[in-house]
Amino acid sequence: MGSFDVLLDDERAQLEAFIEDYRGAIEATLDGLTEEQVRRRLVTSATTLLGLLKHVTWMQRVWFEECVGGTSRRQLGLVTSPDESFQLNADDTIASITAAHRDACATARAAVADLPLDTVVTGHRSGPRTLHWVYLQVLRELAHHCGHADILREQLLAG
User: Fold this and answer.
1) Minimum mean pLDDT among 82-86, 123-127, 141-145: which range?
2) Which fold has domain 13-158?
3) Which pLDDT value is given to residue 15?
4) What phi and psi values does residue 130 have, to the nearest 5 degrees?
């Protein structure tokens, strides 16, 4: 089922469908590219295609495992800052980062499966928020970074 096949009055289904679309879209920006290409820096920041996927994996773990699940970044083995989450290690590959992203998405789905949108979650360091707010934040970040990834992919394919 695609994003637009969900019931028009089912807000949660709409939010989840859009999140799933963006999760797939950011992974798709790596399709057909080499390990070297996805690591190539095309902008002055440390942002790379593979780094973007690594960052959105981290971001979803922060919102769903820390904020919703209540487990600290330290306990989860996550870096503490967004900037650090873009940094690639020598052993990071398209396959390993894609697998980590898919695992994080599956964990996120399980974490929220039985929670209504108005559930107040308290695991985020800046204070309580509703699950609805978390969904919107994740959707905003995924859309934002998909735009970055699209531009980087376009640059790689043009070069």
Assistant:
1) 123-127
2) Four Helix Bundle (Hemerythrin (Met), subunit A) (1.20.120)
3) 96
4) -85, 160
